[in-house]
Give the backbone structure.
Amino acid sequence: MLSFVAVAKTSDIRQGRGKAFTVRGKRIAVFNVDDENFYALDNACAHALGPLGRGRVRNGAVICPVHSYAYNVTDGSCLTDERLRVRSYEVVVENDEIKVKC
C-alpha cells in the first residue's frame, strides 16, 4: 500500500536544486523549485541513467547533469525527447518536512 514517507526538511534542499534519497528501495530525487513547491521523480534519467538529483531546476524542469536532457518536475515528461519519461511521485510538505508517496 502506498503511503507518505518523510525524506527531508525543506531546508535540506536549496532552491533550484535536487537531492536523491532511497525510499522503500527506490532512488528518488526531490526538487525544490522555489522554496514553496517541491516535486519528486525517479533519480535516474531515462536517456542514460544520469543522476537527476544532481541536476539544476530551471523553468520547472530539471536538467540532467550528464547529457542535459530536461524533465518536467511536475509529471516526469521529457522535454528533450517526448518518447522518454521518468516516474513522478506525489509530495506533501507538513511543518517543513518533505514527504513522498511511494
